[in-house]
């Protein structure tokens, strides 16, 4: 657990009603009431602005209740060489989060991307398995009881399972097959039985055949783990949303309901809005970005409680969307809740509507 809980103990709607029912007078005092359905607001933290922009740290302290290191816990950040672990960057962020009473989300223990070259050059099933287990044991153990939720596996579903799938190709899958997911969850659960373990993936929110196939693949992985009695507690929807795509409301609601029926939690883990197809006008663009997020968050929260809503960065000054989804007019992308001068945008108001 974190050293300090950032939130005062607020009354939930249920406890207020219970209080009234019991004839308690405290329930009538003007207390802040938190709907049971409010998620925590999380922010993914990139080391560069974290180190160099005091305003970023101030805004994190003021607004975030959860912090997720954006890259600092990935293999390429922790494992420059085979023999060593470099926890420098991750520790900076984790210590800051603890000092400021924030929850911590770990991203990620297994991904096909962002691996150091020596990992990509591993060979042999046994050697690959040994490296994977050793890594997860060491990392989860270091932050045992401190990192509350883990993206144990990231993007293990093929981009288009209807074409080549259902599994994503990559070092872990190539040597271990579907077992790579079992190994990752089992190892994480053994080292920190109190951690909440998530599978995390993208493109799960519209109702195209490809998205439906991706949702089915996630459901099958969850069932596979449950059948083997391997703990899994939740599914993270990255939610790198495209402003030109509509949320498939009915399909998304059904997907979340099916996850809940399997006993899983749901979180939004990497929210930002790709604005490459929106008009140049900044005000209209910011509105379009906010509306896209609102449509998605409205749908997903109507299907049940979200654990967290985490924004993939805070300011447009630092976002992967700018390079990965560049605009034709080469204007800077505006995917995040604060602009490049750290001023709040309409997207921030939308996020606040759904977070505690
Ligand atoms: C991205 C980071 O934002 C970049 O800074 C980094 O260079 C590459 O990774 N899905 C994920 C995230 O799960 O880890 C990715 O983050 C974005 C896509």
Topology:
Layout: E1 11-12, H1 13-21, E2 33-34, E3 40-45, H2 47-52, H3 54-63, E4 66-69, H4 75-78, H5 88-99, E5 103-107, H6 117-120, H7 125-142, E6 149-154, H8 171-176, H9 179-191, E7 196-201, H10 209-227, E8 234-237, E9 240-242, H11 249-261, E10 265-274, H12 282-302, E11 306-311, H13 320-324, H14 346-354
Parallel strand pairs: 1-2, 3-4, 3-11, 4-5, 5-6, 6-7, 7-8, 8-10, 9-10, 10-11
Helix pairs in contact: 7-9, 11-12, 12-14
Bound molecules: (3S,4R)-3-hydroxy-2-oxopiperidin-4-yl beta-D-xylopyranoside.
(3S,4R)-3-hydroxy-2-oxopiperidin-4-yl beta-D-xylopyranoside (XIL) binds next to loops.
Question: Explain this structure to me?
Answer:
It is a single chain. The two termini are 19 Å apart. With 356 residues, this protein is of the alpha/beta class. The protein has a single domain, classed as Glycosidases (TIM Barrel, Alpha-Beta Barrel), CATH 3.20.20.80. Helix 11 (249-261) crosses helix 12 and helix 12 packs parallel to helix 14 (346-354). Mean pLDDT is 92; it is low at 1-35. Strand 7, helix 10 and strand 8 form a beta-alpha-beta unit. The strands form two sheets. Strands 3-4-5-6-7-8-10-11 form an eight-stranded parallel β-barrel, surrounded by five helices. The protein has 14 helices and eleven strands. It has helices at residues 13-21, 47-52, 54-63, 75-78, 88-99, 117-120, 125-142, 171-176, 179-191, 209-227, 249-261, 282-302, 320-324, 346-354, and strands spanning 11-12, 33-34, 40-45, 66-69, 103-107, 149-154, 196-201, 234-237, 240-242, 265-274, 306-311. Bound molecules: (3S,4R)-3-hydroxy-2-oxopiperidin-4-yl beta-D-xylopyranoside. (3S,4R)-3-hydroxy-2-oxopiperidin-4-yl beta-D-xylopyranoside is lined by residues 70-71, 114, 154, 238, 270, 320.
